[in-house]
Each structure stands twice: as structure tokens, then as C-alpha cells.
Amino acid sequence: MNFKNHKVNDELETLIAILSKLPGLGPRSARRAVIKMIEKKEIILEPLTKVLNEISEKIKECESCGNFTVDNICSICSDNSRNNNRICIVQDVADLWAMERSQVFNGKYHVLGNYSSSYLGINLEELEIDKIINKIERNEVKEIILALDATINGQTTANYIIEKLKNYQINFSSLAHGVPVGGELDYLDDGTIRAAFSARKPVL
């Protein structure tokens, strides 16, 4: 295929534009990825197309925690060996996966999905605190770990959650040292997450 002067047809330009929206991929990286996929069509592009179609049809959010799953309830929430009395609140699925990768937590999760942010136009009421309250009342939750990013939005959200749940007999804790100010959980290595979790500190 001729990529002379980097000009390609509309279909490929559309694919490049879509890939360039992914984290860590700009237009140049996306263009190189597309070229490689076409060069390795049988071992990359065709299997990728099949998998993406299957994921698009089957993947959904867990009705309990918000994790990605092909079932109504994800494997973590349906695992009876995990501790129902502890909930780890994270921003998104990437952070949940980061916590699982570190193998430091054996409780259940709650994925917020959004943070308070005037820049993004997100309202705190959109965080659906009622879902957390339902878990607290159903499972007699004793501890909530706020594994949120060390950013202004993350801390604003943590304070909001604590205020909304202050009438419950719950110990709140947050990740401790090892998480740099302004840091995002998904970008931390496993050792840093384990250290921050193990040395988590009480809130209030």
C-alpha cells in the first residue's frame, strides 16, 4: 500500500483520528499504529476487528460496582471470598484495575466514574452516592478506602463523600505516602500503590 506523502483515504484517516483520541496516542503515533496494523493485517488487524466487535456487543458495566464485565455482576463482586465489609472507592475502571494489579486489597469496589469539576461541568450530585449508601446498609460496611487521585478534584470528591456518609459508623481512610500530589492512580507502579495502601491514614 502506498503511503507516499502520508496521504491516505478517508477510511484510514477516520481510523487514525479515532486512535489518536486514546491516551498516549497522538496523530503521529496513531498513524504509525495504523500502518503497522495494515502491514500485519492477518495477525493484527483481522483479529483486532473480531475482538472489538465482540467487546462492543458484550461488554457492560457491573450493576454493583461499575467495573467492566460481560455479565450483569463482575467476577470481583460475585467472589464470595472477598470482604464485603470494606469498600475501596476509585474514580474509574483503570484505577480499579490498578488496585487489583497490586494485589493489596481483598474487599469490594465502587467506581465513581466522574469527579467534581467545574471545568468539565460535572456536578457532585452525579456521583450517585445513594449506590454507596445501599452497599453500606446491605453489607454492614466498616471501612471505606478513598483511593482517589491526589488532585484538587479527587480531594473535593473525597470530602463530599465523607460529608454525605458522616452519619454512618464507618472508618474512612485514604492512600498515604507514595502518591505524589497531582498523581493519578493508574500511572503508579504496583509497589507504590502497595506502599500507599498499607500506610493509608484515617480521614477525620
Could you walk me through the main structural features you see in this protein, from its secondary elements to its overall organization?
The chain is α/β, with parallel strands linked by helices and 204 residues long. The chain has helices at residues 10-19, 27-39, 41-58, 93-102, 129-139, 152-164, 190-198, and strands spanning 60-61, 68-69, 83-90, 107-111, 143-146, 171-174, 201-202. It has 7 helices and 7 strands. A 5-stranded mixed β-sheet has the order 4-3-5-6-7. A two-stranded antiparallel sheet has the order 1-2. A hairpin with a 6-residue loop joins strand 1 (60-61) and strand 2. Helix 2 crosses helix 3 (41-58) and helix 4 (93-102) crosses helix 7 (190-198). The longest helix is centred in the first third of the chain and has 18 residues, at 41-58. It is elongated, with a radius of gyration of 20 Å. Residues 1-5 have low confidence and may be disordered.
Highest-level CATH class of the largest domain? Alpha Beta
Q: How much of the sequence is in beta strands? A: 5-15%
Record the strand order, biggest sheet. Answer: 4-3-5-6-7
- The residue-averaged pLDDT reads 82
Helices and strands: which structural class? alpha/beta
Question: Given the C-alpha coordinates, what overall shape results?
Answer: elongated
Indicate how many domains the architecture comprises.
2
Total number of helical segments?
A: 7
- The radius of gyration is 20 Å
CATH architecture of the largest domain: 3-Layer(aba) Sandwich
Distance between the termini: 62 Å
The secondary-structure element order is HHHEEEHEHEHEHE
